Each structure stands twice: as C-alpha cells, then as structure tokens.
Amino acid sequence: MASRIASRSSQAVAGPTEHPTRMSHLCAILGEYLTQYQVKEVYRAYLFSAEAHGDQRRASGDYYIFHPVAVATILAEMRMDYKCVMAALLHDVIEDTGVIKEALALEFDQEIADMVDGVSKMTKIDFKNRAEAQAANMDKMFLAMTRDIRVILIKLADRMHNMRTLDSLRIDKARRIAKETLEIYGPIANRLGMNNICLELEDLGFRYHWPWRYRYLSKAVSKIYTDHVSFIDGVETAIRNCLSKKAIAAIILSRQKHLYGIYRKMREKHRSFTEVADVYGVRIVVDNIDICYLALGAIHSLYKPVPGRFKDYIALPKANGYQSLHTLVMGPNGVKVEIQIRTKAMHEVAESGIAAHWIYKTVQEPTDKGHTSWLQSLLDMKQGTRDSLEFLERVKVDLFPDEVYVFTPQGKIIVLPQGATPVDFAYAITHRYSHILI
C-alpha cells in the first residue's frame, strides 16, 4: 500500500472537497518556518494517512482524516519540527488501519514510526477491564515519551482536538474522557509548562465532566466581566500611566482566570464564588528581569499590596519552568486584582512550555533541565512499581506536586515534596553531594 500512496498526486486523494482546504491551511502555517522540502514531506505523510483511513468516519460523521489534519495543525501552530507534524498526520494509522509499524518505518523512517507507535493504543491485547487497559496504554505512552518528548506533544494535541469535538459522543463516554483529561492530560500539560493547552483541556474537561456547574460558573463570570468592563479598562490605564511615568516600557494584558481554576479554588478552599479573590488579573510583560522588579515597585506604589500574597517565581521557578512575579493588590474601590510581571522570554515559556525550548534543526531534545529531570523521574518511578496500574497511580500523584523549597547553609536550593521531614532534607543533601563527601 505504501508504494501506491507515494505515487498518488494530490488531486487523486479520495475523500471530501474539504481535504485540500484544510491541508492548504496547514501547509500555509508550515511554510512560515519550514523548508519547501520539509513541507512536501509533510504532504506525503498526509497522502499516506488519507489513503490508509479511506472512508472511515468519526462519531460526528466527519471523514476521519479531518482529525489527524487538525492535530497536525495544532502542532504546526506550536512551530514543531516537520517529523513531529508528519507523525501527527499518521498518528492513528497503526491503531485504526491495517498499516503496521514496520511499513511506516520503510515508507518514512524509524524515528517517525516510533513516534506513531508511541501514541498508539494496544488494541491486540485482551485486558480484564477498562482501568487495566488505560493503565497499560498510559504506561506505554509514558515510556515512549521518555525516549522522545514529541510523543506526549502529539498526544496532547490529539486530546485537545478530541475534547473540542466531544459533543458528538454519548454523555457517559464524554464524561469519562473529560475525567481522564482532568486527571491526566491537563496535569501533564501543566507539568510541561504548556499553559495554553493546559487551560483549554481543563476548561473543556470541566464543561463535560460537570456540565451544570460549568454553565452556572460560566454565566457568573460572564456577568462579572460584563458589569466591570470599565473597571478593568480603568485598572489597565492606571497601570500603563504609572509605568510610563517611570519610563518602564511594558505590554499590558488583561487576564481572565479560567473557569476550572476558579472552580478548583472554590472547592479546595471551601469558598463561595464571591469570595474568590483573584478573578481579575493583569499581566505585565517587560524586556528584562531588572525591569520586572522595577515594575513591581511601581505597582506597589500605585496600589496597596495584600499581605502574604506576593510570590517570586523568578528567583524560585516552578517545577515546570514557569517564572513570573505574582502580587495581589487592592485596586479601586477595594477590589482585589492579581498582577503578574514577567519578561517576554518568560511569557513565551509560560504559554508554550517545553515547546518554547524546541530546536528545529537538530535532534529533538528539550533544552530545559527541569523537564528532562521529570522524564528521568518517570523511569525511576517505573522501576519501583509492580504493574501498570500502580505506575499510573504514582504518576497521577506526581502530577499534582506541592513542592517545598529548602535552602542549604551555602544558599543552594533543595526541592522536597509536601510533608517532607528534616530527615528527608538530610538525605537529599547527602545524596546530592555524595561525590564531595566521599
């Protein structure tokens, strides 16, 4: 089949007329940062996938090929390398068609075949129940991810498009998928620092897992923002004028806290909607770190800071690489406003996470050590588990970290889990500096 597909022209691809339109859009995005040869290779993968899926349809009735094209487009918008985009176009051919991994390696290369295999579910094994099947498939995906981080990026893009099109599924199935998204895929995106993907996955998961709560909260938030448009504009104007007087160049962005974040805070802290403090938010993006702290001083001279609500994630970045200054201030009329201050580079990392570290023309490896160490921790975690179910549970716990930062007398930072004891700190010190002590 591979040779037949490779020889076909673009006009000969079977399927609806929307194919060329959607692929033209994808190719236009790819043309902004890839070479002509690379775009042609991506199109060749599309031809292969279109032939393999043939007339297959999704639950919505759409031709199946629309899905891999949409997944590839999400990754192209993230500026992923061409082989990653090719694997996205091919990501379901092993699982849903007669194509085998060896055929993909022969038609394209082993690197692409391994990525596609990494995101493919194990459909030829009989499992005792759905939980065991989910655990085994997650196990397979996580291990593939430690070898090539692009596997999880493809899977996150795949899950994002599936969540966007969840309306076509039965309510019970949609709710199950939404629960899995909130428990696994949203936290993974967060752990990799991919804020945009994380927020969308969480809000969509919230919408389908708790539809009534989602509708109520959505209406409440919309009403607040509608009623306070002039308030938000006034705060932005005041901040802009304040920074301008101090000759601080900055981009001012208003930020609406996402629905699932509001709901989670209400549930975890047992607060009513009106008690959630930081519904309003303003983001300030500046040129360098020094200006971040100058801007912070300017903001605190404009609005009174709320005691105990300042966090310096620049000096102490989050585990996913996130850096920013957070401060809660008393805005006009006593309304609390959360201010985030960061550099342009920090903003890019905050929004795109590990994708912001991507290097297109070399072997694909994340340049951020925090993400690399997490991937290594997955391997270590796997070695200490009895089976896939236990491994998945440990990963779930790991994806909701509350780190504790401890300073050594020399000023070094040791990261420990919540609930750690002095003994854990002593062990961490001994383990970390064992090469010096010996």
Task: Write a structural description.
With 438 residues, the protein is α+β, with helices and mostly antiparallel strands. It has 3 domains: 2-196, Hypothetical protein af1432 (Orthogonal Bundle), CATH 1.10.3210.10; 213-349, Beta Polymerase, domain 2 (2-Layer Sandwich); 402-438, Ubiquitin-like (UB roll) (Roll), CATH 3.10.20. Helix content is 58%, strand content 10%. The protein has helices at residues 2-6, 18-30, 36-53, 66-77, 82-89, 93-96, 101-107, 110-119, 130-147, 150-164, 171-191, 195-209, 211-227, 229-245, 259-269, 289-302, 344-352, 369-383, 388-398, 422-432, 434-437; strands spanning 251-256, 280-286, 304-312, 325-330, 336-343, 404-407, 413-416. A 5-stranded mixed β-sheet has the order 1-2-5-4-3. The protein has a two-stranded antiparallel ribbon with strand order 6-7. Residues 1-17, 123-127, 359-367 and 434-438 have low confidence and may be disordered.
SSE succession: HHHHHHHHHHHHHHEHEHEEEHHHEEHH
Count of runs of 4 or more consecutive helical residues: 21
Q: What is the level 1 CATH name of the largest domain?
A: Mainly Alpha
Indicate the radius of gyration in whole angstroms.
24 Å
Beta-strand content:
5-15%
The domain tally reads 3
Name the CATH superfamily assignment of the largest domain.
Hypothetical protein af1432
- For the terminal residues, how far apart are their CA atoms? 61 Å
